[in-house]
Design brief:
The complex is a heterodimer of chains A (about 120) and B (about 120). Chain A is mainly beta and about 120 residues long. Helices cover about 0% and strands about 50% of the residues of chain A. In chain B, strand 8 (about 65-70) and strand 9 (about 75-80) form a beta hairpin. The chains are: A mainly beta (about 120), B mainly beta (about 120).
């Protein structure tokens, strides 16, 4: 498994501002992902963070709104830009440590974002 | 396309009784199935997974899940529920094909265990 930490754990932000969320893993991992979990709902994949290249975004998510960096195999950031109240969610970082098809995905503790 | 269904939004059970949280799936190819639990204000914790082999998979905290290929189900079970098991449970399936690093999550089932 992998130990994953996220900063901040929670934040309250004003509309129109941006917040950068950090994800740190205690070991090098193959895959890193960012999810959004809106209140009372399941997880929605935002993007796959690719080391050394642009992230791969899912339908409905764009780089201008959710820029992602992954400078190395243990760290990634997600920025929520120009926030609106609809961005209020839990944002989760996850990793798949190895490249095997049967490997497990592990999640960070999440960042609870409230936009006023 | 891969998908996961959790037909029950909520399951209520008395402490000490057996519990079942249902999950059905649709995949092309071999299914790689997972259960996660989310406690309030926490991230998701991995409970167990089925890749191949024995249809009954044992996981953390006394949970187990039964893979049933003919019914395309992967129900989560525990013989004796604890109040501390109260949480949100997610079933997930991993794409067994080209996009094998994509995971598809169910809508979640809230488990309430009453003393």
């Amino acid at each position: 498994s992998a130990v994953i930490s996220q900063k901040p754990s929670r934040d309250i932000c004003q509309r129109g501002t941006s917040l950068t969320i950090q994800c740190q893993v205690d070991s090098q991992v193959t895959m890193m992902f960012w999810y959004r979990q809106q209140p009372g709902q399941s997880l929605t994949l935002i993007a796959t963070a690719n080391q050394g290249s642009e992230a791969t975004y899912e339908s409905g998510f764009v780089i201008d709104k959710f820029p992602i960096s992954r400078p190395n195999l243990t760290f990634s950031t997600l920025t929520v830009s120009n926030m609106s109240p609809e961005d209020s969610s839990i944002y989760l970082c996850s990793v798949v440590p190895e490249a095997g098809r049967t490997d497990t995905q592990y999640f960070g503790p999440g960042t609870r974002l409230t936009v006023l | 396309a891969q998908s996961v269904a959790q037909p029950e939004d909520q399951v209520n059970v008395a402490e000490g009784n057996p519990l079942t949280v249902k999950c059905t799936y649709s995949v092309s190819g071999n299914p790689y199935l997972f259960w996660y639990v989310q406690y309030p204000n926490r991230g998701l914790q991995f409970l167990l997974k089925y890749i191949t082999g024995d249809n009954l998979v044992k996981g953390s905290y006394g949970f187990e899940a039964e893979f049933n290929k003919s019914q395309t189900s992967f129900h989560l079970k525990k013989p004796s529920a604890l109040v501390s098991d109260s949480a949100l449970y997610f079933c997930a399936v991993r794409d067994g094909g080209y996009n094998f690093n994509k995971f598809y999550f169910g809508s979640g089932t809230k488990l309430n265990v009453k003393p």
